[in-house]
Amino acid sequence: MTQKRKNSTKNNAGKAKIVTLPGPDKTKATKMREAPKRYEELNFVDTSLPVWNYSLLTDEDVANYQQGTNYQLYKKFGSHSIQVNGRWGMYFCVWAPNATAVSVKGNFNHWKNQEYELNPRWDKSGIWEGFIPDFKLGEAYKYHIVGFEGRETDKGDPFANFWEKRPQTASITWDMYYEWNDDAWMKKRKKHNALDAPWSVYEVHLASWQRPDKNDEETYNTYDQITERLVPYVKELGFTHVELMPVTEHPFDGSWGYQCTGFFAATSRFGDPQGLMRLIDAFHREDIGVILDWVPSHFPYDAHGLFMFDGTHTYEYADMRKGFHPDWNSYIFNYKRGEVKSFLISSARFWFDLFHIDGIRVDAVSSMLKLNYSREEGEWEPNEFGGNGNLEAIAFIKDLNETIFRDFPDVQTIAEEATDWPGVSKPTWQDGLGFGMKWMMGWMHDTLDYFKLDPLVRQFHQDKFSFSMMYFYDENFMLPFSHDEVVHGKSPMLYKMPGDEWQKFANLRLMYTYMWTHPGGRLLFMGDEFGQTSEWNYKSELDWGLLQFDCHRLLKDCVADLNKILKEEPALFVNQFNQYGFEWVDLNHRQESVMVYRRKGKKKSDDLLVILNMTPVVRNDWTIEVSGKAYSEEIFNSDKTIYWGTGNVYNPEIRSELVDKTQKKYRLIVNLPALAGIILK
């Protein structure tokens, strides 16, 4: 163990300059900033030692870190290329509170242990740090930790910005400099990401959207190749946002990214971190927002990761009734520790700060909130008040949302939360959790259950269809048809639909019409837009060959037109999260399974009337009574030939008659195609 050295000489370094290099090739101009004031005991540099005793941290940094309120750890923890006393090198900083020695090892020293030992801070914070002169960018490294009871492990850097491509597991020194070209987007994105803006999200798994070789799971497109293909495709479809399944570094492809080891690193499967920045930049230049899946609920037990980081339960709860996740065979963060809370909120903030993302979708929130999640009686311990809520996790989530919305008021946080926990998307000052939106899992299950039914028996299950509006205003809901609905034997979206081939496509177009005209945001998983005929397989790619067939290609066009209408019609979004935006017009035709509702804007002239015919029966001269204003135009019909419908039933003009002048009631006479939805304006 390297002992703390006594400062016997006056520091001659003065205020050293910290320089952030623009990249490992050092080709761009450097950016200079003043170093913070050093501690009296740590501010000297002993140039006779392999690791210079040097610190970037202040007393306030450490105190806030321990209290769980330092949310910019990525600026000082991890590895940073700086200049000290005129020499370039790398500053390292890591938290290992139960370690007796920590050293840096890598290719640069042939992976020898304990040759470049870091220095423990004098304040007993458990932080180890030091400056290694002449250490280059692009070097692979790990921390060799002598931990509790002498256990020796080699760990990746929890704050690394870049990792070796799996199966290799070392961290890589890197610089995060990037010149952004999305100023126009950043200035206006507050309006784009607001709750009264249109929200249609395309969920993507980058590895399996397209592959260089669809039959080889070891092949990946680079971030730049993905940019060339994915950005124009999403633009063509008209989605307002794209959601990327986890791109944080992870060791196992089969986890789909949800077993993360690098909470500050874009996965190296597709290239370096700047590659992901270019992808996000390109989306922004096309007016498309970017949401990242983020997983603060658990992490895997891989030897190079966070588990037992210094020989003890450092990042996870020591009590396995709280610390082990039985569903995913992984470990749960100890939200009670200030250092862990600072780590996680810093991770979320990192992606907003350095990658310009527009939102995070927080995975598995239910498992964080409840101590008895997936646990039987006797397998969990109630909180101090006798309840099942994890009070530390609840406090963490509230602080997370408060911090994000304080520092980045023009973004969103979205919860994947599947229970009836109250106030998930309510502000913390109203005793909510503070998320901007919540996935509406109940709507997803009810909708799929309803549309799986034979259309002739749907009349007996209308309440399942209409139930969502009974509780819709409890939260700010996003309607999700995510990756989880097309795996593990659940079948692709198309084959959930009943009937022959024509009816399957008609039902799917009808369901999407309902989804796009229901209040709230909406999310669709890749491949669902053109009727993928197989379940999603992360090892392969989407069945792009299906687009040679009209039925699939024209379904894609239908989704694109729904997105176009969504963005053009204020009634579909300006009141999407309040009671003024929706009104049932007719639910009294159960036997015919025809349902009618109104979407309302701020002006009466913006209102839309949505009519859904849930059976394969054409209904000509169908009569509907509406109040307010007459509807004169059919702006969408899911049975059009341009969507692979029949095109036989449509409304070139809407026949209307004023039946009550005082009440402003009109009788409309319309033609309803089979298994189709129409929108009137």
Keywords summarizing the entry:
681 residues, alpha/beta, 5-stranded antiparallel beta sheet, elongated, 3 domains, single chain, TIM Barrel, Immunoglobulin-like, 8-stranded parallel β-barrel
Word description of this protein:
- By secondary structure, the protein is an alpha/beta fold.
- It has 3 domains: 17-172, Immunoglobulins (Immunoglobulin-like); 198-572, Glycosidases (TIM Barrel); 581-680, Golgi alpha-mannosidase II (Immunoglobulin-like, Sandwich).
- Helix content is 23%, strand content 22%.
- The chain contains 15 helices and 30 strands.
- It has an 8-stranded parallel barrel with strand order 11-12-15-18-19-20-21-22, surrounded by 4 helices.
- Strand 23 and strand 24 (594-599) form a beta hairpin.
- The longest helix is centred in the C-terminal third of the chain and has 19 residues, at 550-568.
- The radius of gyration is 28 Å and the shape is elongated.
- The N and C termini lie far apart (76 Å).
- The relative contact order is 0.08.
- Residues 1-43 have low confidence and may be disordered.
Main sheet: strands, sense, barrel: 8 strands, parallel, barrel
Which sequence of strands runs across the widest sheet?
11-12-15-18-19-20-21-22
Counting helices, strands and paired strands, the structural category is alpha/beta
Name the CATH superfamily classification of the largest domain.
Glycosidases
Number of helices: 15
